[in-house]
Design a protein that fits this description.
heterodimer, A: alpha+beta, 23 helices, 52% helix, elongated, B: mainly alpha, two-stranded antiparallel sheet, 17 helices
């Protein structure tokens, strides 16, 4: 699950964010800013026009000034509400960026000149390729790759996780991030980023939304909304000639009120807030998306590649049973296995000791005084064990122990082969135990599948997503674990090349692939995948290849990322549908009101029974403005997403946002009309 | 409303249901170049045409080339038709010695027939020579319909293909649509019509002496051959001014039934072709169902409105209930041979599809009865629609539906595996936009121009506005039917409606072709449980909703000042 780290507990209506957003709403009134949003730009132009006419009427003491003033005010509020929504969404990111900026102190770096000479330079002067020395207590001045040394590093400034992590040269734990702090020991690292382009800089820019570009789907949606806006401009502009023909010319206020009510202001006002909030939700989950595009792609993912170890299974094999040969008792085998494992510090070894204690009450013994000699595991012998009191107990792979028994003049019964085979077929790892020439039995080591994975894969399947387990295990073991975990497919004995080939094959069929990775050899596959989530603990190469970084380094999070992507798209679609469906009621409010004076019979269309024409028009405009604010929490939080198939989702959302979108404004406008009456506003 | 009336309406819908898979599967074979039983006869003809015209039938066209070919072909056809009308006075087969057609009217008529609209600002029997009727108008009835089918097929290919640049060859599609689809139907159908009493000759008009002793001129001509293609090609331009209400065009209830069936047959079949060529038959049926629902809704409203008649007459003591020897309801503007149910059905069908043939007079319908044909036009002819035009028109709405609601399944929208992105939305919105722009702008200008616009109106008040609105809606939708009550044969209306028809045709063809070109290049995403369903009743409902809401939102203000207010005024005792 997500750790919320330093982004935690920022409530939706955090007063500082709200205050800043209110100011931001006014700042965003600049026409150049507004022009990026065609729908709201039209509202702003309408507001300017009505304001201008209002001033003229006020000077000339013409018209129904109270009505005109209220319409104008609510039109401006409509624009401000939309700006407020966007500013709120941005505000949450900005607040977080400020926290991050504190980590980007002006550190002093020790630039290494020769083997043991270094100079002190400001971090900003470091260039890619420079080598720096960072000692305990110092801040790492830039992103880098450790070339020598090992240190514990506090990365809480980035990840929010307070427990220090070990970073060392070589392998997949060699990357360090600028702005994090070395707690103990020292490292030498080669700088991998130019100043201003560090991970921290990118992160700040991302959470702040400075680099935010419209995503492909957002662009398409904007075109739709702009198109609808133009259609309504045509409908309203041509309505005036029809009105003149009918002997009922309309005032500018009424026409602009109608236009603003019809154009999709609800979604137009909330669209960018939805996008920003989607990115923000990922950040709440401690995931950094390098582009909004990848968040959208996450919603589209067909195939999830999941590494077995750490994602599907707990990561370590554990002893789950002792299977003795005939003529050997359970306790005898457990005792021997425990003795052979007492000095074995591997998780497997420890799990054998624990199992023997749990099943047979055998306690760990101190063998120091028994003249015991421990035989550590070696790649050559492929077994480990203990020699004590004339006994030579060994545990290891079946072939290795077989050879050991034979070397001591014993023979392995065929029963042993059968047990080994049975365990392997069930997805376990058989560990054979022998005492000198006498084989005793087998310890069943098993990959333990994480608790809730089965249900999650079932949920993914219902969403139409195929899960593929990637493992280095042999096909037999892989098949058994895949069956237990409930994944759809598996790739056994996988090499990085196999993984890459699988991604390309899926993509050739038009499927979108998501995967996680941390090693340098994952980098090509991460780059190839449509959604590549690099672990923050991973190498620099992996982080650069992926399009998201998970600061918690939790591979299971891929599932949440997909859900967030879907939630973002659903929120967008639902509010678009809602916005368009709203127009039906607005027509029934405004059209009869416009022409009631000329055609009293049109009162029959006033199905809401609105009190007066002015009140009807005003109520529609007020509803239209207020609904934007009312939906801000929904836009920021996203619509609740339950993993189900597309047909069920569509039915549910169409019912709520389509049908609801038709009905809600009838009720809302009626209520506002009553309030307007009570307050004697029109 | 009578049981008999409903029974006839039900029979009609069932007949459409039956004809859909037959014609649809046949057209799939024709356009995917599979073997058909007509090949031995038509194959040589086709090859001969290509040899003479120098067309390379194997050369595939990108969408731009396809569009250019459509425009060129239609443009040249239009010029030829214009010239033919202007020169008919000096050309043969003109027994009535009609002179050349006036320039504005000739332009209007040329645009009208080249765009499959068949708006007629003239009366055929007193304007057009037999040569113009046959070589000009009837020829256009074939090729403008064939052009529509060709474009529809190209659009379907775009949806069905994966990662292809081209959409087929326009000339091949045009020729095959004419030879394999339209000609066989026309030949068989014309013979059927003749058997029912439709005239087919080149004689001068007859003169008859009536019982009262007056002299009556009875128009003649090659009617049957033109009548059948007028219906099946959703052209709608009558040989005579009275169109399908004339006994020589539509003599019996049987011909009436077949003529209605003809209007929907090919368009309905194309939904099946869409299904079978894209490998999703159920999607084809889902679209068919949406169309059928909209059609049934229209028929129901019109039938209800007309059968209830005029409340003012009831108030005056007239009995408007159906009974022995009385049809009941509002019989004004109805053909007595067909009655209210068949006229309501015919009117809905002819305005659902962009046919425009009529067997009644909308101007004399009740306001709501007249609202339905008008609203049908404003749905931009996607309820089965014009041959081909209905299909590529509905694809625009399908794309919009999929885009708006598709997001709600948590995926970026896709249509049959093809991602719907900015370009597709742009093209879809362009069609919606241009359609409303051309109708509303011209109507707006005409409604406040006393000199050229309102002076043609015969009825004042909201009814007059309906008349103007109908004329431009009919032009833009390439329907061609007239509300009546508007003298459209003026330079202003001839020119503006002519332009409206051209915009309504070619701006509705180019964007869907562009969209198909773009879809064709895409790699389809294989379907999964997460895929937006386009085969379910829910999708049908969604599509109906989007078509109605987009149409209603655009035209509701205009309609409210026309037929809607007129309806309420009639309820309160005022008529126009």
């Amino acid at each position: 699950m997500a750790t919320y780290g330093h982004t935690q507990a920022r409530s939706l209506w955090d007063p500082t964010i709200v205050r800043k957003a209110i100011a931001g709403a006014f700042l965003k009134l600049r026409p150049r800013t507004m022009a990026k949003n065609p729908v709201m730009f039209v509202v702003e132009v309408g507001s300017v026009l009505t304001t201008w006419r209002l001033v003229q009427d006020a000077i000339g003491s013409r018209g129904d000034l109270l009505f005109e003033l209220q319409i104008t005010a609510w039109l401006w509020l409509t624009v401000l509400f939309a700006n407020f929504a966007e500013a709120m969404a941005e505000g949450r990111g900005k607040a977080q960026a400020d926290t991050l900026r504190q980590a980007r102190t002006d550190a002093i770096a020790n630039r290494v000149l020769a083997e043991d000479r270094f100079e002190q330079v400001p971090a900003a002067n470091l260039r890619k390729g420079d080598v720096v020395l960072v000692r305990a207590g110092e801040v790492i001045p830039a992103d880098g790759e450790i070339i020598s040394g090992v240190a514990s590093v506090d990365e809480s400034a980035i990840t929010g996780e307070s427990a220090p992590v070990i970073r060392e040269s070589g392998g997949d734990r060699s990357a360090v991030t600028g702005g994090t702090r070395v707690l103990s020991d020292w490292i030498r690292a080669r700088v991998t980023s130019e100043p201003g382009h560090t991970f921290l800089d990118r992160m700040i820019a991302l959470v702040e939304g400075a680099e935010r570009q419209k995503t492909p789907n957002e662009i398409a949606l904007n075109i739709l909304l702009a198109g609808l806006t133009i259609v309504f401009v045509i409908a309203v502009v041509t309505l005036q000639p029809f009105a003149i023909y009918s002997g009922a010319p309309q005032t500018l206020f009424v026409l602009i009120a109608l236009l603003v009510c019809l154009i999709p202001t609800t979604i137009g006002g909330l669209l960018s807030a939805i996008g920003i909030a989607g990115m923000d939700r990922l950040i709440q989950h401690n995931v950094l998306a390098m582009s909004g595009r990848s968040v959208e792609a996450a919603g589209d993912v067909h195939t999830l590649l999941l590494d077995k170890t750490g994602t599907i299974t707990l990561g370590n094999r554990q002893a789950t049973a002792f299977v003795p040969l005939s003529g050997v008792t359970d306790v005898e085998l457990a005792d021997a296995a425990q003795l052979a494992s007492l000095a074995d510090e591997t998780p497997e070894g420890r799990s054998i000791v624990v199992l023997a204690k749990e099943r047979h009450g055998l306690r760990g013994r101190d063998l120091a005084d028994k003249d015991a000699t421990f035989i550590p595991f070696s790649a050559h012998t492929r077994m480990s064990g203990v020699d004590l009191a004339g006994r030579a107990i060994r545990k290891g792979a079946a072939e290795a122990i077989g050879a050991y028994v034979a070397a001591n003049g014993g023979t392995a019964p065929s029963e042993l082969d059968a047990i080994v085979d049975r365990i392997a077929r069930a997805g376990g790892t058989p560990l054979v135990v022998a005492d000198g020439s006498r084989p005793l039995g087998v310890v069943h080591l098993k990959d333990v599948v994480k608790g809730s994975m089965r249900q999650r894969f079932a949920a993914l399947r219902a969403m139409g997503i195929t899960t593929v387990m990637i493992t280095g295990d042999n096909p037999r073991t892989a098949a058994a674990i895949a069956a237990e975990a409930g994944v759809d497919e598996f790739l056994a004995e996988a090499t990085p090349e196999d993984k890459m080939a699988l991604i390309k094959r899926e993509q050739a069929d038009g499927r979108l692939v998501a995967m996680t990775g941390d090693g340098t050899n994952d980098a090509p596959a991460l780059a190839q995948a449509d959604v590549g989530v690099a672990m923050n603990t991973g190498t620099q190469a992996a982080k650069e290849a992926g399009n998201m970084v998970d600061l918690d380094s939790n591979p299971t999070k891929l599932i949440e990322i997909v859900e967030i992507g879907k939630q973002l798209l659903i929120t967008r679609g639902a509010l678009t549908t809602f916005s368009i469906a709203n127009d039906v009621a607005k027509y029934f409010a405004i059209i009869p009101a416009m022409f009631l004076a000329t055609y009293p019979v049109l009162g029959a269309m006033n199905v809401m029974g609105l009190r007066t024409p002015q009140s009807a028009i005003l109520s529609a405009v007020i509803f239209n403005a207020i609904v934007i604010v009312a939906l801000v929490p929904l836009a920021l939080r996203g619509i609740r997403y339950r993993p189900t198939g597309a047909a069920a989702l569509l039915r549910r959302n169409l019912l709520i946002y389509g049908l609801g979108g038709i009905v809600a404004p009838f009720v809302g406008i009626k209520i506002i009309d009553v309030l307007v009456g009570v307050l004697h506003l029109a | 409303m009578t049981t008999n009336g409903w029974l006839q309406i039900a029979c009609f819908l069932l007949a459409i249901l039956a004809v859909t898979p037959l014609l649809g599967a046949y057209m799939t074979r024709v356009f995917t170049r599979q073997h058909t039983w007509l090949d031995p006869l038509l194959g040589p003809t086709e090859r001969f045409i290509y040899r003479v015209t120098g067309v390379d039938g194997r050369r595939e066209m990108r969408w731009t080339e396809y569009a250019v070919a459509v425009l060129l072909f239609s443009g040249v056809s239009m010029l030829v038709l214009y010239a033919l009308q202007r020169l008919q006075g000096v050309l043969p087969w003109n027994p009535q010695r009609f002179g050349g057609v006036a320039p504005a009217l000739a332009f209007n008529t040329a645009a009208s027939f080249a765009t499959n609209t068949n708006w007629q600002a003239y009366a055929g029997e007193s304007t057009m020579s037999y040569l113009t009727q046959m070589a000009g108008l009837a020829y256009q009835n074939f090729v403008s319909a064939a052009t529509g089918i060709a474009v529809a097929i190209a659009v379907i290919r775009g949806i069905a293909q994966r990662e292809r640049e081209t959409l087929g060859n326009f000339w091949v599609d045009l020729v095959r649509a004419t030879l394999w689809v339209l000609l066989p139907i026309a030949i068989v159908g014309a013979l059927f019509l003749v058997s029912q009493g439709v005239v087919q000759n080149l004689r001068p008009y007859d003169t008859a002496r009536t019982v009262e002793g007056a002299t009556q001129v009875i128009a003649q001509g090659p009617v049957a051959s033109q009548e059948i293609i007028k219906q099946f090609g959703t052209n709608g331009g009558g040989f005579f001014n009275a169109n399908s209400a004339h006994p020589f065009e539509n003599p019996t209830p049987l011909t009436n039934f077949v003529e209605m069936l003809g209007i929907f047959a090919i368009s309905a079949g194309l939904t099946y072709t869409l299904g079978s060529m894209t490998g999703s038959r159920r999607h084809g049926w889902a679209i068919w169902a949406a169309m059928a629902v909209l059609c049934l809704a229209g028929v129901t409203v019109t039938y209800w409105a007309e059968a209830h008649g005029n409340p003012l007459l009831s108030a005056a003591g007239a009995d408007q209930t159906p009974g022995i020897g009385s049809s009941g309801g509002n019989m004004e503007g109805k053909e007595v041979r067909f009655g209210i149910a068949n006229t309501a059905l015919f009117s809905t069908v002819t305005t659902d599809a962009s046919c425009g043939a009529i067997n009644g007079w909308f101007d004399s319908f009740t306001p709501v009865g007249g609202l339905v044909p008008l609203a049908n036009l404003q749905l931009s002819e996607v309820v089965f629609g014009g041959v081909g035009a209905g299909l590529y028109g509905v694809v625009v709405y399908v794309v919009l539906s999929v885009f708006i609601a598709g997001l709600m399944v948590g995926r970026t929208p896709e249509y049959l595996g093809k991602k719907i992105q900015a370009f597709e939305v742009q093209m879809a919105m362009l069609t919606v936009l241009v359609f409303s722009l051309v109708i509303l702008t011209f109507t707006a200008v005409a409604s406040v121009s006393p000199g050229v616009g309102t002076s043609s109106i015969l009825n004042p008040g909201p009814h007059g506005l309906s008349e103007i609105l109908y004329a431009y809606s009919s032009g833009a939708a390439n329907n061609g039917s007239a509300f009546g009550g508007l003298n459209a044969n003026t330079p202003w209306y001839n020119t503006t409606i002519g332009l409206t028809m051209l915009v309504g045709r070619f701006f509705m063809i180019i964007p869907p072709l562009a969209m198909a070109g773009s879809l064709s290049r895409k790699k389809p995403v294989p379907p999964s449980l997460g895929t937006f369903p386009v085969t379910t009743p829910l999708f049908t409902a969604l599509l109906v909703g989007v078509i109605v809401i987009v149409g209603a939102l655009t035209f509701f203000p205009a309609l409210s000042l026309g037929p809607i207010v007129e309806h309420f005024l009639m309820q309160s005792g005022r008529v126009f």
